[in-house]
Structure formats: C-alpha cells, structure tokens
C-alpha cells in the first residue's frame, strides 16, 4: 500500500468516526428532541453537552442551602416529610412548569419523565414485561455494584429464564424456613444493644440505626439466601458495596455526557476496583458451595442452591459470570432496601410515639411475649403492615423506576421513540396532593386500613415494589424480615429522636439519611 493510500484511508476512517460521534452526541439527540416536542412533550431546554445536568446541580445546591439553614432547629416538630421538593427540587419545579410528563436530559440522553399514573398505566399496558429495556446509559455505570447479568439489569429471554429459576426461592413454603434465622440475627443485634446499655451509666442509649440495620440485613441475607455464616465475609461485602455506592452516586458525575466517565475518573476506577474485589469474594463463596451441593443438609431452598442447580436444569447453563452477578444483585438489593425501610420507619415511630404504642399492643396480641415467631402470625400484624406501607409512601426505598423503550410506544397522542429512556418518579407520585389529598406529607398509616393503595386515587400512583412482571421478587421476604425485626425490637425498647438528628434525606440511588438516624433507645 502506498503512502497516499494510507493517508486517504486514515482520513476516511477519521472522518467516519467523527461523523459517528457527531451523530450520536448531537444529531440523533436533536432529532429525538424534535420528535418528542412535536408530540407535545415540553420540558426544560437542554444545552450541549450537559443537557440539564448543570440546572439540576444548581437547583439542588439552592435547596440544600435552604434546608441547612432550617437544620439548626431540627426538632421533631420541624421535620418535614416533603422530600420531593427538598431532595429532588428539579423534578418538583419542572413538574410545576411542564406537567407530569415531560422530557429532560442527562447529557445527550433524553429521559421522558413520568409522574402521571394514568399515562404510566396506558404505557405499561402496551409493553410485555420481557420487552422492557433498562437504560443502556446506566448499565455500564452500575456494573461494579449490580453486575451486567443480574435479574435487575437483564432483558428479554435471559430475564425470563433467570426469573423462572429464582422465583421458588421466595415462595411462602420456602420463606417459612427462614424465620428462625431472621429471629436469631435480630436477637443477636438486640443483645448487643443491651450490652451497650449495661456498659453505660445512663438508662438510655443513643444509637444510629442507619448503621445497625444494614449489618442485620446483610447477615440475614447471607444466611438465608447464600448459606454464609461468617460475619467477617458479610461485613467485608457490605463495606465494599457501601463504598461503591458512595463513589458512584454521592458525588457529581456526568452520566449521559459523552466521555463523562473521564471527568470522574477517580470515582469510576475506585468503583471498578471494589467491584472486582467483590466478584472475587463471591466467586470463592460459589466455589465452596459447588463442592458440597447435593450432600449438604437442606433446611430450605436457598437462592444460591437454586442458582447452582439452575446450572443443570435449564437449556444453557448459568455461567459463572451470571452466578456472580446474581449474587451481587441479591446481596445489594436484598439488604439495602429492607434496611432503609426499617431505618425510616424507626425515625417515623420515634417522631410519633402513639404508633409505637399501637404496634406494641398488636404485637402483644398476635405474638405474645415469646421469641417463637411463627410464619402465620406475620400476616396478622395488620397495623405493622400499614406502618410499612406509609413509610414506603413517604420514604420509598426505590424512589424511581427506569426503563428504555425497545420499540416506539404510542400512549394517546404521544409516541415515545425507540431508544428513549423513561424515568418514573415514584417519590413524586407518592407525594402528589392530587392523588392523596392535602394531608399528603403527613404520616398517617391509617390510610391503609382496608385499602392496599392507601386511598390513592389511581392504583399506579403507589408503587413501592414496582409494577407488572418486573415487580420486586423479594417483596414477601422483605415484609417478613421487616415484621420480625420491628416486632422483636418494639417489644423490648421505646425510641425517640435524638437531639443530634438532622433531617436531611439525600438522594443517591436510594433515599438515605444525610447524616445518620441517631435515636434515643430506652429499654421497656
Ligand atoms: C422494602 C424492601 C424492598 C423494596 C421497597 C423493593 C423495591 C423494588 C422495586 C421497586 C423493584 C422494581 C424495579 C424496577 O421495576 O426496575 C424491585 C425489583 C427487584 N427487587 Fe426489590 N425491593 C425490596 C426488597 C427486596 C429484597 C429483600 C430482594 C431480594 C431478596 C429484592 C430483590 C429485587 C430484585 C432482584 C429485583 C429485580 C426484579 C426484576 O427485574 O425482575 N428486593 N424491588
């Protein structure tokens, strides 16, 4: 090949790559924006290449400075549950300006924002569960934490196959076999609290429950679903997962911005390294279990055994990578969500002692004084169910749901073009006065008395566990653990909000307390 051919070839390839880049980063997004606008969807004006990210950052800084001035008086009475306006101010403000369905941009990625349950109902009626996509823009970003092949990330036939293998792990027959383990771990935590109390000169203890519940959640998840009984391994996994979450979501990052990863390289590399370390730990757990599968005693069908047996039962075995990613997904999704639900519930019960008394009455009636909790008792803890529902309404463990259209979706006059990302603002719907009435930001568990949807005007407006076939697979496990833990604690302790508590719910992947939830715990 002559030099001239080489130079022409080089120029041609460079121009082709440049054209592809301009098309992906500019022409295609502008075309999508025009399409969505011509469908009547409004929204904030994006700028290139950040989209609306800098507006979002500015609005958040402003809302934070407003709430930090009110932090100085963070007494129980001054705590507001209106977390939509304070923690997601951009969505709250754009909703006022553009309605409950609009388009906003993360970098060059368009997101159709939805906080209209009727629109969501019609849209979800058009798409089968296995045809929903998960936004590609988040996929590579979340790999260190959730892997690529775990249930929450995969689509199509792979999703259907994994869901089919995993579902029996959470059947009622199987859940029954996990009760004793959950009781045992909770009693262990309570004994630690009692020892701390015994060592203290006071009759009460200040405890940050945000630190306590993830450890408990991690331990029960490890025992009941992975057959791990080694607190050192659990703690290492939990610590690393927490660090990944902080490095991926707590700091400003540029998701959706072309080459945005390079702008937060340090966090990205740190998360990747931690992700690999977690993979290594999980692989050794999987290998150890492979050695004893078939000969170990069976107490219940734990998740890891089903996944390993799924290797043999189905066309195309689960690869080692699929196994690791599934373990990661469940370890993270299974402990964090439940721990957060117990953390926010404890804060709410500390604020409203009347509800502690109501629950104690119910626990006494249903369970009595023993620690012998029977699976059938849990369904009879009705008021505790209302408290769970109400705390999920105000502080949902999964504040949003994300999808990506895999074909054009027509909803009324609107066509959501193939490839568009969809952001369902669950917390926005849970705090919408049009759906719940003027007392929307008040803690009123009684709204769920005899009504699974708490009086919400539209059933798609209350989605703590998601919707359709993609609904949370661990819902019954979560409720079971919540009821066991809260019953055992409430029977022994009362709690109130510590003066050092600052109400500062912060959104990073989930809603976390900005600086822990210190409570004053007193033995009864
Ligand atoms: C209070 C506790 C929990 C809440 C509020 C919650 C919430 C949710 C929500 C909203 C979804 C739907 C996500 C979507 O549509 O994209 C989901 C999915 C999922 N949840 Fe949970 N969850 C909880 C506990 C658990 C537990 C304990 C486990 C495991 C044992 C678990 C495992 C999963 C998995 C694997 C998925 C993905 C399901 C799929 O895509 O097919 N969750 N969860």
Automatic annotation (TrEMBL):
Residue ranges that the Swiss-Prot or TrEMBL entry lists as coiled coil: none
Transmembrane annotation, as ranges: 6-27
Major location category of this protein: membrane
Swiss-Prot/TrEMBL cofactor(s): heme
Any matching Pfam family: p450
Binding residues for heme: 472
InterPro entries per the UniProt record, alphabetical: Cyt_P450, Cyt_P450_CS, Cyt_P450_E_grp-I, Cyt_P450_sf, Cytochrome_P450_Monooxygen
Subcellular compartments: Membrane
A GO CC term assigned to this protein in UniProt: membrane
GO MF annotation: an example: heme binding
Top-level taxon of origin: Eukaryota
Keywords: Heme, Iron, Membrane, Metal-binding, Monooxygenase, Oxidoreductase, Transmembrane, Transmembrane helix
Similarity section: Belongs to the cytochrome P450 family.
Name by which UniProt lists this protein: Cytokinin hydroxylase-like isoform X1
Biological classification of the source: Eukaryota, Viridiplantae, Streptophyta, Embryophyta, Tracheophyta
């Amino acid at each position: 090949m002559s030099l001239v051919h080489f130079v022409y070839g080089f120029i041609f390839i460079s121009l082709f790559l440049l054209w592809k880049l301009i098309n992906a980063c500019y022409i295609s997004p502008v075309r999508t924006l025009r399409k969505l606008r011509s469908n009547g969807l409004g929204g904030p004006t994006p700028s290139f290449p950040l989209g609306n990210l800098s507006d979002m950052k500015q609005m958040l800084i402003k809302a934070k400075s407003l709430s930090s001035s009110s932090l100085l008086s963070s007494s129980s009475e001054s705590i507001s549950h209106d977390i939509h306006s304070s923690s997601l101010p951009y969505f709250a403000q754009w909703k006022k300006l553009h309605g409950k369905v609009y388009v906003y941009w993360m970098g060059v990625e368009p997101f159709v924002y939805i906080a209209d349950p009727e629109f969501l109902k019609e849209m979800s009626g058009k798409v089968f569960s296995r045809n929903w996509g998960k936004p590609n823009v988040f996929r590579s970003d979340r790999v260190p934490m959730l892997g690529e092949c775990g249930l929450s990330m995969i689509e199509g036939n792979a999703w259907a196959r994994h869901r089919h293998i995993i579902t029996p792990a959470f059947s009622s027959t199987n859940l029954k076999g996990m009760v004793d383990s959950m009781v045992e771990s909770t009693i262990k935590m309570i004994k630690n609290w009692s020892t701390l109390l015994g060592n203290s000169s006071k009759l009460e203890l200040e405890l940050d429950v945000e630190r306590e519940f993830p450890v408990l959640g991690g331990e029960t998840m490890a025992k009941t679903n992975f057959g791990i009984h080694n607190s050192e391994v659990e703690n290492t996994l939990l610590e690393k997962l927490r660090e990944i979450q902080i490095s991926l979501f707590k700091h400003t990052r540029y998701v959706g911005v072309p080459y945005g990863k390079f702008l937060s390289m340090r966090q990205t590399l740190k998360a990747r390294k931690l992700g690999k370390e977690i993979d290594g730990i999980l692989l050794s757990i999987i290998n150890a279990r492979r050695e004893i599968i078939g000969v170990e005693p069976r107490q219940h069908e734990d998740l890891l055994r089903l996944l390993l047996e799924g290797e043999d039962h189905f066309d195309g075995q689960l690869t080692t990578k699929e196994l690791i990613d599934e373990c990661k997904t469940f370890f993270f999704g299974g402990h964090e969500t439940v721990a957060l639900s117990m953390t926010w519930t404890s804060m709410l019960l500390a604020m409203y002692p009347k509800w502690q008394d109501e629950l104690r009455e119910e626990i006494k009636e249903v369970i009595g004084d023993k620690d012998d909790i029977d699976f059938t008792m849990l369904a009879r803890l009705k008021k505790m169910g209302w408290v769970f529902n109400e705390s999920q309404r105000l502080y949902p463990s999964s504040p949003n749901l994300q999808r990506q259209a895999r074909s054009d979706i027509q909803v009324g006059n609107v066509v959501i073009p193939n490839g568009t990302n969809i952001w369902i603002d669950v917390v926005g719907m849970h705090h919408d006065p049009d759906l719940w009435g003027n007392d929307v930001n008040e803690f009123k568990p009684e709204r769920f008395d005899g009504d699974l949807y708490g009086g919400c005007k539209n059933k798609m407006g209350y989605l703590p566990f998601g919707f359709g076939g993609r609904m949370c697979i661990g819902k019954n496990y979560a409720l079971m653990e919540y009821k066991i833990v809260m019953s055992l604690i409430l029977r022994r302790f009362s709690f109130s909000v510590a003066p050092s508590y600052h109400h500062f719910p912060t959104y990073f992947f989930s809603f976390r307390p900005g600086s822990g939830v210190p409570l004053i715990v007193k033995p009864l």
